[in-house]
Structure formats: structure tokens, C-alpha cells
Amino acid sequence: MSTAYDCNRPDGRESGLAAAANTVRAGGLVVLPTDTVYGIGANAFDAEAVGALLAAKGRGRDMPVPVLVGSWSTIDGLVQSVSKQARALVEAFWPGGLSLILPQAPSLAWDLGDARGTVNLRMPLHPVALDLLREVGPMAVSSANRTGNPPPATAQQAQDQLGDSVQVYLDGGPTGEPVASTIVDLTQSTPRVLRQGEITLEQLTEVLGVEVEPLA
């Protein structure tokens, strides 16, 4: 059975974050607000929990789950190395609507799907999400919808789709018009935009000082 918490009220936020943190540590699933859409999240280092997340969405391993972090420095332990380009983009756009694909640290014992040695990282600009991430560490988070359905802008829309497959719903109010994050692939010598979203090509080029390739 799932429980929803109104995080717009101080008492609801405190109890909701405590319940969500306990659920994540126990291998369960939570729905949380982000600055783009509501997400369904699990402990990134718990393969069974990530598998349950994919099952709840009706999604296959061919679409690996992104990872959200609560601070800039967290990525240092998650990737092979943080390049100058990655550092510049993190400092310019995190927290916010920019996702970075980087080679993961070889020593990491996690299974996010068929990621082929890479990880998709983002730091969201939402206080509830950041509080939870800073409490439990990196989380595997995907949009809180069944595959093929629109991503939810409210906790209720997420609950309507995912129901009791999620133990805790954190309601932070409507996210507004859903705007996807921009995804930049930094695994090659030239940065590539895999998805155009909140951050524009012009903004990326200005920060990096080099032309950023759009997805063909």
C-alpha cells in the first residue's frame, strides 16, 4: 500500500522525507517532484530496486535509468574522470535542466540497465528532491509514468499511473509545463546533444567555447 505526503506543509514534508528515505534504504520505490516532471526513484546501488522501477514503468533494460545526485561533488565518485568540459557544464547549469552522459567508474557495483559503461547524471533544481538525495545519496530516477503515457506534472497523476507499485509519494505541488532536460553526451571527444530540452545549444556552446553537435 502506498502513502502520499503533502510536502508543501512543513510537517508533511518532514514526515514524507523521513518515510521516503527509509523506503529507499529498504529497497522500495518513491515518487518525488523535480524541476522537470515527477520522477520514480530507487537506490541507484540496489539492482533489485532498479529492476522494480523498470517493471513499474513497463520499461525494458534497453533504456537505462538516469541517476540524480544532490551535489556537484557526488559525481567524482560515480564517473571514470570529470573532464574540464563536464566540470564547466556542472558549474554553469547544476542544479537544473542538464543531463550529462559520462563513462561510469569501473568499480561501481550497480545495474541501471544496458548502459554500456556509461551513466546519465543530473542534479535537479527542486528542494524536496535535493533534500532526499542529500539524505540517501544517488538515486536511479526516471519519469513517473507508465511507458507510452505522458510524464506527470503532479503527484496525483503519477499515482494514477503507478498506484501501489510505489510505496511513498512526495507531493511538492504541480511542476508546471513539463520541460525535459537537455542531454549532452560527453563520452566522445566532441560533445553531442542527444536531446534538446531546457538548456539550448547556444548556452552550451558559450560555456564550452566549442561547437556542440546536435543530434542528427
Automatic annotation (TrEMBL):
Q: Is the keyword Transmembrane helix in the record?
A: no
Subcellular localization is given as:
Cytoplasm
Reaction(s) catalysed by this chain's protein: L-threonine + hydrogencarbonate + ATP = L-threonylcarbamoyladenylate + diphosphate + H2O
EC number(s) in its UniProt entry? Answer: 2.7.7.87
Q: What UniProt keywords apply to this chain's record, in alphabetical order? A: ATP-binding, Cytoplasm, Nucleotide-binding, Nucleotidyltransferase, Transferase, tRNA processing
Q: What is its main location?
A: cytoplasm
- List the Gene3D superfamilies hit by this protein, alphabetically: DHBP synthase
Hey, which family's this protein in? Belongs to the SUA5 family.
Query: Which protein are we looking at?
Result: L-threonylcarbamoyladenylate synthase
Question: Mind telling me which Pfam families this protein's record contains?
Answer: Sua5_yciO_yrdC
- Lineage start: Bacteria, Bacillati, Actinomycetota, Actinomycetes, Pseudonocardiales
Q: Please report the stretch or stretches of sequence annotated as the YrdC-like domain.
A: 14-199
The cross-references to PANTHER family, in alphabetical order and at most eight, read: SUA5 (PTHR17490), THREONYLCARBAMOYL-AMP SYNTHASE (PTHR17490:SF16)
Among its keywords, does the record have Isomerase?
no
- Which species is listed as the source? Saccharopolyspora gregorii
